[in-house]
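May I ask for whichever protein you like with its backbone structure tokens?
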Amino acid sequence: MGVVQICKGHFYWLEPEHAFHPLQPYDMGRIALAFLQGSFAYAGWNFLNYVTEELIDPYRNLPRAIFISIPLVTFVYVFANIAYVTAMSPQELMASNAVAVTFGEKLLGVMSWIMPISVALSTFGGVNGSLFTSSRLFFAGAREGHLPRLLAMIHVNRCTPIPALLFTCISTLLMLCTSDIYTLINYVGFINYLFYGVTVAGQIVLRIKQPDIHRPIKVSLAWPVIFLIFWAFLLVFSLYSEPVVCCIGLAIMLSGVPVYLFGVYWENKPKSFNSFVAKLTHLGQKLFMVVYPAEGSEDGKEDKDEAE
């Protein structure tokens, strides 16, 4: 529809004098927040990294998936936005709660119902990817001893991490306590980029301290450095523009510190507490029909036998 609109001559807002005319005065804080909120649309770029254990030939398929998907998604997103601008002014875009739906109503007529369905399918796909990966984070954390052991268990027949999925569901419902989606995106975006930066910086540190270890997937250090420069700009100006939102995001992140101190760092817990946790774990195993993955160990086999 965007191509049809352009062929009809509806490209007023795409002309340089209009396309690059700011609706508000330039401000570095606003630009940083624009990047932060815009990058939220691309948040799935790192999902596949979380499930490399379940990926066939990850050293080959992981880079291939990234090289194919990111340019493809970028192409689709950019041209979708160009199509929107052929039918709506920037003011209409900002006033719309669902741009794609408004676009469909203006151009598709009686077939405008296609757009809400398409948006719903797209949202469902995003939620599916999020559930698939987020639950694996809790699963991996529990396997490393950072979360209750129950979250590292899988269904005896389907091999799905049901407790981790339910924990993800509860965490998601807590996020819905805020009614402002943009504030929620700022919370998530700020914390996400904080961890992205720490992770990328860790890659540079490892490359310097351990240059000779085996690296099946290796990239030039120029890319992490470029990313960290962009990352520093994003976080500093986001913090400057929205200090309250960013500080609340940091507080949410730091709320995990007392949980870590109590659950992981404190090793000599009372026997009564350990017994209570064990009973809850066994109750959860019976309720969800889950066992600890065997991985060839005797402990795992005993857990499965006990569950059966």
Notes: Residues 58-87 form the longest helix (30 residues). The beta strands are 154-155, 290-291. Confidence is low (pLDDT under 50) at residues 296-304. Residues 108 and 181 are 28 Å apart (CA to CA).
